[in-house]
Design brief:
The chain has about 90 residues and is mostly helical. Helices cover about 75% and strands about 0% of the residues. It is built from 4 helices and no strands. Helix 3 packs across helix 4.
């Protein structure tokens, strides 16, 4: 039975292309791959800080909230993926 590759790997469809592009630069180095995937998360925290800075007195609290929401979302997504693959 033919399936799209993203279905058994549980990755978004364009994630495999991103992995391939990053791997062509860092030669399948695990640290390099993880660092490349951390860059958008770090950028999101910095953008949240930049947006919150003129709006609230403690812009770092917005960053902490964004990191907490991202962490909970990632853990929930990972738990859902594990539960789905166990079936």
């Amino acid at each position: 039975m033919a399936q799209p590759m993203w279905l058994p790997t549980q990755n978004p469809p364009l994630c495999l292309y991103r992995i391939a592009i990053i791997a062509s630069v860092v030669c399948w180095n695990e640290v390099g791959l993880h660092a490349a995937f951390m860059l958008p998360a770090i950028a999101a925290v910095l953008r949240t800080f930049a947006i919150a800075k003129p709006l609230i007195a403690l812009p770092a609290s917005a960053d902490m909230t964004a990191v907490a929401v991202h962490t909970v979302g990632s853990l929930t997504s990972a738990a859902a993926d594990n539960h789905a693959s166990a079936r």
